């Protein structure tokens, strides 16, 4: 099948492009994920959506198509809450503390699923840090139990999504898949179980569009200004955070204002070995938990019971 009809609608530039319905967006994205369209059509789709921008309805449709094709991770306990943390941006200037957040949550008894893939060659990614934190993450594939942390590569969840993420290496620009992975839910919860998405935005305009999508899809989530795009609070200053239960805003923390009284004792470099050493020191009590991350953990625990 061809997606040319959809490209004609979305490819008319920022002013002339028309938004797709949720059903049309699901059909379009499903064909892209299934690999039934040409590379030229995929490039046209990526660039058209990059220029136009996704509406909440379109993003909901992309998520519908994704969820229909995901290899999901089952949960072991009907009463558990599973926290899902996408990790796709990595670290460039600050140490990557997404693994620290995930392990702190697991230590509180929550099941935690982190998914991601290395999207650039110049950054440090969660998979590498967890590899050095030997034994802190369980192998992907088995059902997820309370108090357990798993890391699942994107390609295991959806080869089509990983292919689409890799388009960035060719064209040099992010595409809709980079937003989809931050909003998708790969967990197949047992009856009565709940899933809480912890996700982030990088630029202020994404705060409104992601919040609108979370409301439209009736998500259970915590949305925050990420640390270099990662869904972990900046260890130096607490970012703005917004909580959702069934899509309804229930919690709002403004960004920490004013001058900082002191800075946390963070590693001077971002390499995986130094980062893993620091995370282990925090978990063993030899270094304090950075205040903003401790706040984030409290917000997640509160939302997990809502």
Layout: helices, strands, pairs:
Layout: H1 4-10, H2 13-16, H3 22-34, H4 39-52, H5 56-67, E1 73-74, E2 81-87, H6 98-107, E3 111-116, H7 126-132, E4 149-153, H8 154-157, H9 159-165, H10 167-171, H11 176-183, E5 187-188, E6 194-201, H12 204-216, E7 221-225, E8 241-245, E9 248-253, H13 272-283, H14 291-304
Parallel strand pairs: 1-5, 2-3, 2-6, 3-4, 6-7
Antiparallel strand pairs: 7-8, 8-9
Helix pairs in contact: 3-5, 5-11, 5-12, 6-13, 7-13
Beta-strand residue percentage? 15-25%
Calculate the terminal CA-CA distance, rounded to whole Å: 44 Å
Overall SS class: alpha/beta
- What is the rounded Rg? 19 Å
Q: What's the SSE pattern?
A: HHHHHEEHEHEHHHHEEHEEEHH
Query: Which oligomeric state applies?
Result: single chain
What percent of residues adopt helix (DSSP H or I)?
40-55%
Number of strands: 9
| Side-by-side strand order of the widest sheet | 4-3-2-6-7-8-9
Per the principal axes of the C-alpha atoms, what is the gross shape?
globular
Poorly predicted regions: none
Q: Total helix count?
A: 14
What is the mean predicted local confidence, pLDDT? 92
| Biggest beta sheet attributes | 7 strands, mixed
């Amino acid at each position: 099948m061809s997606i040319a009809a959809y490209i004609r609608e979305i490819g008319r530039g920022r002013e002339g492009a028309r938004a797709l319905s949720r059903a049309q967006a699901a059909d379009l994205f499903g064909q892209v994920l299934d690999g039934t369209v040409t590379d030229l059509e995929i490039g046209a789709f990526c660039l058209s959506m990059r220029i136009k921008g996704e509406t909440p309805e379109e993003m909901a449709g992309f998520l519908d198509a994704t969820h229909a094709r995901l290899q999901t991770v089952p949960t072991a306990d009907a009463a558990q809450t599973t926290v899902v943390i996408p990790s796709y941006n990595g670290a460039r200037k600050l140490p990557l503390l997404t693994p620290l957040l995930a392990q702190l949550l697991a230590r509180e008894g929550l099941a935690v699923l982190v998914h991601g893939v290395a999207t650039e060659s110049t950054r440090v990614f969660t998979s590498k840090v967890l590899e050095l934190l030997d034994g802190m993450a369980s192998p992907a594939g088995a059902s997820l139990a309370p108090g357990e942390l798993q890391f699942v590569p994107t390609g295991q969840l959806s080869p089509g999504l990983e292919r689409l993420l890799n388009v960035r290496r060719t064209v040099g620009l992010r595409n809709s898949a980079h937003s989809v992975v931050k909003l998708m839910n790969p967990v197949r919860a047992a009856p009565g179980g709940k899933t809480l998405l912890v996700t982030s935005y990088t630029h202020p305009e994404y705060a409104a569009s992601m919040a609108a999508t979370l409301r439209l899809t009736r998500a259970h989530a915590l949305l925050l200004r990420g640390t270099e795009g990662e869904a972990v609070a900046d260890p130096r200053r607490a970012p703005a955070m917004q909580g959702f239960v069934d899509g309804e805003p229930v919690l709002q923390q403004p960004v920490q204002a004013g001058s900082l009284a002191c800075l946390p004792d963070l590693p001077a470099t971002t390499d995986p070995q130094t980062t893993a050493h620091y995370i282990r020191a925090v978990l063993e009590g030899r270094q304090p938990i950075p205040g903003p991350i401790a706040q984030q953990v409290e917000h997640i625990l509160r939302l997990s019971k809502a």
